[in-house]
Structure formats: structure tokens, C-alpha cells
């Protein structure tokens, strides 16, 4: 029994040493690659654009949050005067296809369903920290959109 245990331990030790050597080699490769990127004048390593946008969004949120709390302190707003509004879109069509009659034992039953979506309805809800709320209201799509409404 101890011989199999020691053999197993040696096997695991060799696996660990192999993994460690691979890790060192990959670190050396990364260091070499970073050195080549730094030395090459034509290559520039930059952050992804989305990361920059996220950083700017976070910074904007932080600044706005600080301004928000300073306004609350300066004008003595309480929980009944600050409302939070949220909106969401609801599709009015069904998303599941209708049931189909088929022969018993048949594994695959096909149905052609329409890819059309129904009109989008917007729901707006509004409430404050004191518990007061405005009843939710629905914004439906226009039936006859007139272009002159959009012109300024």
C-alpha cells in the first residue's frame, strides 16, 4: 500500500512540476512579448473602446451623484419631493407558437410561425421613497404618424 501511495505522490509531483514549468515558460513568453511591443514604434497597446466608455460613464455617475447629494442638502428636499421614474417596453404579440395536432409516436412536429412582432407599448412607472406613486401609464404606437410633427 505505501508503495502505491508514494508512486501516486511522485506522479502528482511530476504533474505539478510540469505545470509549474509551463507557467514559468508562459510568463517568460508574456514578458518577451511585452518587451517587443514596447520596443516597436509602430505597435501601440491600447484599452478597448468599451472600457474607456465604461470608465467615463462611472466618472460621470460619480460626479452626478456628488452633485445630487449636494443639491439635496442645499435645498432640503425630503422623501416626498424626489420621484424615481422607470420605463420598459412590452411586446403585445405572443412569443410561443400554437399547439399542433400530430400522430402519436412522431418525434418531430413542425410548425411555421410568423416572425412578425406586435407593436411595442411603453409602460412608465413613477414613485418616491415615501411610498407615493403615480399610477402607471402606457404609451401606445401612433396609428397615423405625421412627418410635420417631427419638423421644427
Q: How would you describe this structure in keywords?
A:
152 residues, alpha+beta, 3 helices
Can you give a write-up of this model?
It is a single chain. This protein is of the alpha+beta class and 152 residues long. The protein has a domain at 79-152. The chain is 45% helix and 16% strand. The protein is built from three helices and three strands; from the N terminus they run H-H-E-E-E-H. It has helices spanning 2-39, 49-75, 147-150; strands at 83-91, 120-128, 133-139. It is extended and about 75 Å long.
Describe the structure in brief.
By secondary structure, this protein is of the alpha+beta class. The protein has a domain of 74 residues.
As laid out across the biggest beta sheet, the strand order is: 1-2-3
Order of helices and strands: HHEEEH
- How many DSSP helices? 3
For the largest beta-sheet, the strand count, sense and barrel status come to: 3 strands, antiparallel
Overall pLDDT: 73
Report the C-alpha radius of gyration, rounded.
Answer: 32 Å
> What sort of overall outline do the alpha carbons produce when their principal axes are compared?
extended
Please mark out the parts with pLDDT under 50 across 5 or more consecutive residues, or reply none: none
**Oligomerization state of this entry?**
single chain
Give the helix/strand class: alpha+beta
Give the total of beta strands.
Answer: 3
Q: Quote the beta fraction.
A: 15-25%
What helical percentage do the residues reach? 40-55%
- Give the end-to-end Cα distance, rounded to a whole number of Å: 90 Å
Amino acid at each position: 500500500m505505501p508503495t502505491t501511495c508514494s508512486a501516486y505522490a511522485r506522479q502528482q509531483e511530476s504533474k505539478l512540476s510540469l505545470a509549474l514549468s509551463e507557467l514559468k515558460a508562459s510568463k517568460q513568453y508574456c514578458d518577451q512579448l511585452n518587451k517587443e511591443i514596447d520596443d516597436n514604434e509602430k505597435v501601440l497597446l491600447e484599452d478597448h473602446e468599451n472600457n474607456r466608455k465604461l470608465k467615463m460613464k462611472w466618472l460621470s455617475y460619480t460626479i452626478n451623484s456628488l452633485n445630487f447629494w449636494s443639491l439635496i442638502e442645499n435645498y432640503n428636499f425630503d422623501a416626498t419631493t424626489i420621484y424615481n421614474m422607470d420605463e420598459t417596453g412590452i411586446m403585445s404579440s405572443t412569443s410561443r407558437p400554437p399547439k399542433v395536432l400530430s400522430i402519436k409516436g412522431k418525434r418531430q412536429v413542425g410548425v411555421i410561425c410568423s416572425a412578425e412582432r406586435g407593436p411595442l407599448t411603453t409602460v412608465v412607472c413613477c414613485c418616491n421613497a415615501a411610498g407615493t406613486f403615480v399610477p402607471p401609464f402606457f404609451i401606445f404606437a401612433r396609428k397615423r404618424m405625421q412627418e410635420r410633427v417631427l419638423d421644427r
